[in-house]
Amino acid sequence: MSQIAFIGGGNMATSIIGGLVKGGDVKASMIHVSDPGAEQRARLSKDFGINVHENNLDAIAKADVVILAVKPQVMKDVLQPLQATLSSRQPLLISIAAGISMDSLASWSGCKALVRCMPNTPALLGRGATGLFASAAVSIDQRNQADSLLSAVGLTVWVKNESEIDAVTAVSGSGPAYYFLLMEAMIAAGQKLGLSKETATRLTLQTAAGAAEMALKSDVDPAELRRRVTSPGGTTERAIATFEAAHLRDIVDAALKAANDRGAELSQQLGD
Ligand SMILES: NC(=O)C1=CN([C@@H]2O[C@H](COP(=O)(O)OP(=O)(O)OC[C@H]3O[C@@H](n4cnc5c(N)ncnc54)[C@H](O)[C@@H]3O)[C@@H](O)[C@H]2O)C=CC1
Ligand SMILES: O=C(O)[C@@H]1CCC=N1
């Protein structure tokens, strides 16, 4: 069985580790995590019974797969001290960082088999969505390994071009935040209409979950599901007309383009 090392034990690593341990596909004893935060390490050790390390080199010492889960801004500084070990051991290197290119990962790590992927936080519940892209040096076995690690925490989708990872980031990596923003706005609007905060919150969250579940299970697309809620001359029609008049689709288009472009900009700024 492969040893898996996470460099960085923050929000995303915790989500993925939680999913892996809960799913039972990977033994806790096979998972190593390094993080400079003592509290972070204590929490990971207590919650999941995995191996924790202060030093990144200790985490990767026997790893077959190394998952990079640090912020993009520190990636170069994190990888350079690991380069000698990584280039001699040649583990499969999986980066979940937004906006760090394959070229940068290869030159900073010395690894050849690289996977860039973009998960999202619902991975914590096993309901994540991850887009992945592999370098040419990734073997079929390694690709399957990356797929099974990330599919333990939800849906996986492979893309053919590296640039598509920025689009995946814009749609699903950042996506949960868009839905949370809409929830915040609906809860506030419900309160203005006279509901208590608790009632507005419970109704909003259950509606979001129900709508998502319907869209996932339905054999028709979201546009048709929307039409089925919208009675002619009724209440939904007024609300949808208000969204359309405020150019909601253009706003979503611009927001996702901004996220996509920020991914590309980060690659430029943080690359060599
Ligand atoms: N938060 C999200 O929804 C998503 C984040 N990502 C990507 O995941 C990566 C991590 O993001 P988060 O988990 O949100 O950040 P985070 O800040 O929660 O976690 C980063 C962790 O790295 C640790 N760290 C800092 N310096 C380190 C070092 N030198 N060596 C080892 N560990 C170090 C920090 O102590 C922290 O625990 C980022 O690159 C981000 O682009 C990807 C998909 C979704
Ligand atoms: O906001 C970010 O940069 C990261 C990547 C996707 C979600 N969070």
UniProtKB/TrEMBL annotation:
EC number(s) on file: 1.5.1.2
The residues covered by the Pyrroline-5-carboxylate reductase catalytic N-terminal domain are 3-99
- Give the species: Thalassolituus marinus
**Mind telling me which PROSITE patterns this protein's record contains?**
P5CR
* Name of encoding gene: proC
Protein origin, superkingdom: Bacteria
The record's SUPFAM superfamilies line, in alphabetical order, gives: 6-phosphogluconate dehydrogenase C-terminal domain-like, NAD(P)-binding Rossmann-fold domains
Pyrroline-5-carboxylate reductase dimerisation domain ranges (all copies): 162-266
Keyword Iron-sulfur included in the entry's annotation: no
Q: Which reaction does it catalyse?
A: L-proline + NADP(+) = (S)-1-pyrroline-5-carboxylate + NADPH + 2 H(+); L-proline + NAD(+) = (S)-1-pyrroline-5-carboxylate + NADH + 2 H(+)
Where in or outside the cell is it found? Answer: Cytoplasm
An example molecular function term from Gene Ontology annotations: pyrroline-5-carboxylate reductase activity
UniProt lists the family membership as follows: Belongs to the pyrroline-5-carboxylate reductase family.
Its recorded name reads: Pyrroline-5-carboxylate reductase
Name any one Pfam family assigned in the record: F420_oxidored
Stored InterPro entries: 6-PGluconate_DH-like_C_sf, NAD(P)-bd_dom_sf, P5C_Rdtase_cat_N, P5CR-like_CS, P5CR_dimer, Pyrroline-COOH_reductase
Purpose of the protein = Catalyzes the reduction of 1-pyrroline-5-carboxylate (PCA) to L-proline.
Q: Which Gene3D superfamilies match?
A: NAD(P)-binding Rossmann-like Domain, ProC C-terminal domain-like
Q: What enzyme class is recorded for this protein?
A: oxidoreductase
Q: Which UniProt keywords apply?
A: Amino-acid biosynthesis, Cytoplasm, NADP, Oxidoreductase, Proline biosynthesis
Q: What is the lineage of its organism?
A: Bacteria, Pseudomonadati, Pseudomonadota, Gammaproteobacteria, Oceanospirillales
Query: What coarse category fits the chief subcellular location reported for this protein?
Result: cytoplasm
- What pathway is this protein a component of? Amino-acid biosynthesis; L-proline biosynthesis; L-proline from L-glutamate 5-semialdehyde: step 1/1
